[in-house]
Write a structure and sequence with these properties.
Number of domains: 1
Strand content: 25-35%
Order of helices and strands: HHEEEEHEEEEEEE
Shape: elongated
Radius of gyration: 32 Å
Number of helices: 3
Number of strands: 11
Strand order of the largest sheet: 4-3-5-6-7-8
Distance between the termini: 122 Å
């Protein structure tokens, strides 16, 4: 009898369920593990979304850069009403009526301070220094045009013919505070066309490059700084840069 009772107690002890404390420990452990897994998954998702947003922003910037470069490759030394072009001014981010800042670069070498400033840059003189703080710029230039109707933008002497329009690229802030890159066209100081090239452009800079005082600058470095907030509330930034050779650079 005693042996039978002992066996019964052992079987009862073996079939007994988990205690409440044991269940709570298991639930807490599972919660911590699942929470960690969810955090890892959220971090991976955020990283993936940030990478995708940055790639899209960079691709948008590259398309803008290609349009600017295509224009500037056709441009070169011209003169309108005593001003040499291409010319670059600082232009702070703001609405359309934001005034121009200091002249950064021009092909007019009568301003010796500009020439000396370029050659003082880090002792070698590769880049203009007026915009060392990376304030937004505006570049203004002309493009060749067939004025005599001979089918080419060259006159009878083989020289380039230049249209009356002045073209410019600059960043403009709209009424809602969003920055846009615009391509403006004006004739005789009157704006005739304003074309949006792309959005999310926080700033754009143009730096001239040359190493020989006897040559006008023939190369322009372009940097587009982009910034936006994606659908996940993440701040996304990107920079796109390139270099353009102007088509007609003349010696002094």
């Amino acid at each position: 009898m005693r042996s039978h009772a002992l066996n019964a107690r052992c079987r009862g002890r073996a079939t007994r369920g988990h205690t409440f404390v044991e269940m709570m420990i298991v639930l807490c452990t599972m919660t911590i593990v699942l929470g960690g897994v969810m955090q890892i998954m959220k971090g991976a998702r955020d990283s993936w979304q940030l990478t995708g947003s940055k790639s899209r922003l960079q691709e948008s910037g590259r398309r803008m850069l290609e349009k600017i470069a295509a224009d500037l490759r056709k441009s070169g030394l011209t003169n309108v009403a005593g001003q040499n072009y291409p010319a670059i001014w600082e232009r702070q981010l703001g609405p359309e009526n934001t005034p121009r800042g200091p002249l950064v670069a021009t092909m007019n070498y009568s301003d010796e301070s500009l020439v000396n400033e370029v050659f003082a840059w880090n002792g070698v003189g590769d880049h203009i220094t007026r915009n060392a703080n990376r304030v937004a710029d505006e570049i203004v230039f002309q493009l060749p045009q067939d004025l005599d109707g001979n089918g080419t933008p060259l006159d009878a002497n083989g020289d380039l013919e230049w249209g009356a329009q002045l073209f410019s690229y600059r960043v403009v802030q709209d009424a809602e505070g969003r920055p846009w890159l615009y391509r403006n066209t004006d004739v005789g100081g009157v704006l005739t066309e304003q074309r949006p090239i792309g959005s999310s452009v926080r700033s754009i800079t143009f730096d001239v490059v040359f190493n020989d005082r006897s040559l006008r600058f023939g190369n322009v470095d372009i940097v587009i700084y982009l910034e936006e907030t994606n659908a996940n509330g993440q701040r996304v930034t990107a920079e796109v840069e390139g270099s353009v050779n102007l088509r007609n650079t003349k010696e002094l």
